[in-house]
Amino acid sequence: MRIDVVTIFPEYLEPLSVSLVGKARQRGQLDVRVHDLREWAHDRHNTVDDTPYGGGPGMVMKPEPWGEALDSVLASGDGKPVLVVPTPSGIPFTQELAVELSEQPWLVFAPARYEGIDRRVMEEYEERLDVREVSIGDYVLAGGEAPVLVIVEAVARLLPGVLGNAQSHQDDSFAPGAMSNLLEGPVYTKPPQWRGREIPEVLLSGHHGKVARWRRDEALRRTSQNRPDLVERCDPEALDKYDRRL
Ligand code: ADE
Predict the structure, then answer these.
(1) Is residue 161 part of a domain?
(2) Among 4, 5, 138, 241, which has the minimal tally of Cβ within 10 Å of its Cβ?
């Protein structure tokens, strides 16, 4: 997969060189290119923002640098990327969307600073590309760079061969399937006793069915505690089916 990010803070994307994403890049599974938007600003101060029409606080990102930057990125590859624009007014970023994005050969990210990008840029590229305005949660950050890190990590770990064990994302909280919409329950590792605390006995039983049933109960318990909204959306039939398989 190829990923391009156009930003006024290229150094903000440096974490994309470490850990899972960094390793995927080293292995050639992911081709990440970070571009400085100011390369496409032509005045003496490399200005990329201006005051909003209609007044109001803050600054708006100018359309010209974005247009030139995106045209240049688009011309540098084959086919059409999906353009991902992080914004608190976008559609919620979900695991489902992460899966969909992970199936694309090419993603271009346009993280904004200030009050956002001049609307005409979206209109322009919506005519040419699949554009997704995406929010990573109901809070407002200072810019879209941190959301890019979040989205890229969620997508990269779904790429074939990036996670060591393909099973490990099938039981994720929010993974599609029987347990979908349930949060993952607690996990334990050695030693069997720590500061006088034991691990649940069932995990030592070696009984696969009982372990799976325990995990499902814990998942339900944790979900009702932390996300009652998800329990409501949980399909009881899917749970029943899951139980019958145990
Ligand atoms: N930019 C600022 N806040 C954001 C959010 N919550 N999601 C995506 N992009 C953002």
Answers:
(1) no
(2) 138
Of 159, 154, 152, the closest CA to residue 15 belongs to 152
Asked casually if ipTM beats, i.e. exceeds, 0.95, the reply is yes
Query: Does 115 qualify as catalytic in the annotation?
Result: yes
* Domain assignment of residue 20, given as a range: 2-156
Residues annotated in a binding site for S-adenosyl-L-methionine: 136-141
State the distance from the centre of ligand 1 to the C-alpha of 104, rounded, in angstroms.
22
Confirm or reject: Cβ of 86 under 6 Å from ligand 1: yes
Between the two ends of the chain, the Cα-to-Cα distance in Å is: 37
Atom of ligand 1 at shortest distance to CA of 134? 8
Residue of 25, 38, 157, 222 with catalytic role? 157
pTM (predicted TM-score)? 0.93
A 10 A CB-CB count for 93 gives: 21
What's the pLDDT tens digit per position in 115-158?
Answer: 999 999 999 999 999 999 999 999 999 999 999 999 999 999 99
136 close to ligand 1 (CB < 6 Angstrom): yes
Token reading at 20: 């899972």
> Is there a contact between 16 and 4 (Cβ–Cβ < 8 Å)?
no
User: Which residue in the block uniquely carries the two structure tokens 């069997």?
Assistant: 192
Q: Does the Cβ of 87 fall within 6 Å of ligand 1?
A: yes
Domain count, the chain: 2
**Is residue 237 assigned to a domain?**
yes
pLDDT in tens, 61-82: 999 999 999 999 999 999 999 9
